[in-house]
Amino acid sequence: MIFFDLDGTLLDFKSAEYFGVRTLYLENKQHLQMNEDVFYQLWCNVSSIYYKKYLDGELTFAQQKIERTKGVFAEAGIRLSDHEAEAKFHTYLKGFEHHWKAYDDVIPCLYALKGRRLGIISNGDHAQQVFKLERMCIREHFEIIVTSGDAGVAKPDVRIFEIACEKAGLPPEECCYVGDDLYIDILPCEKFGMTGIWLNRYQRAHDEPNIRMIDSLAILGSYLL
């Protein structure tokens, strides 16, 4: 069975995130003493902190939305109530969701794999991750969807891969995982016994030996032959 990561592998997450942050920035520009690029980088830095707290079980998915928004605006010298932060996050979310799109190589890849058992293993809120697949019109391709929000454990913890294999009814050596992060996706899944395939779209350098690597999903089908 072939499992895929979602954000950064199938969904162009960074592009959607950028436009979501831009939407938020333009609505609040008059109150922010920084340019758009600085605000975007601030959002990314603060978001990574609070999203990790969510993945670690320290915050609920709803709480991390509020706390990361409050954190970003606090860095800009603006204190927000929970209600104000929730409203501002909704502004970001509208822009973010509006720009959800699959990479150009995704749909051809999925059709090339027609007849193969496919699944998703993804960190994130289950409902939101399924919604992304639906918005990209690719939900039907995936038999199994395992998310950290549903499983209660997040990558790089190998238990999420164990859960996915159990759902598939297959041992790990009969499953492979395609993901864009070498350290969160590939090394942990291989530690569990799955075959990892690193989608290294941007040709990042690495020091890990014997890594199976592709730079496009366009060649995944032939790579698996």
Report on this structure.
Helix content is 51%, strand content 10%. The chain has 10 helices and 6 strands; from the N terminus they run βαααααβαβααβαββα. Strands 3-2-1-4-5-6 form a 6-stranded parallel sheet, with helices on both faces. It has 225 residues and is α/β, with parallel strands linked by helices. It folds into 2 domains: 2-12 and 101-223, HAD superfamily/HAD-like (Rossmann fold, 3-Layer(aba) Sandwich), CATH 3.40.50.1000; 13-98, DNA polymerase, domain 1 (Orthogonal Bundle), CATH 1.10.150. The mean pLDDT is 96.
How is the main sheet built? Answer: 6 strands, parallel
Number of strands: 6
Sketch the topology as an H/E string, one letter per element.
Answer: EHHHHHEHEHHEHEEH
* Spatial order of the strands forming the largest sheet: 3-2-1-4-5-6
- Strand portion, in percent? 5-15%
What average pLDDT do the residues reach?
Answer: 96
Number of domains: 2
**Class of the largest domain in CATH?**
Alpha Beta
- Give the name of the CATH architecture of the largest domain: 3-Layer(aba) Sandwich
Cα end-to-end separation: 13 Å
Count every helix, treating DSSP H or I runs of 4 or more residues as helices: 10
Helix content: 40-55%
Category from helices, strands and their pairing: alpha/beta
Report the principal-axis shape. elongated
What is the alpha-carbon Rg in Å? 18 Å
CATH superfamily of the largest domain: HAD superfamily/HAD-like
Classify the fold: give the CATH topology of the largest domain.
Rossmann fold
Uncertain segments are none
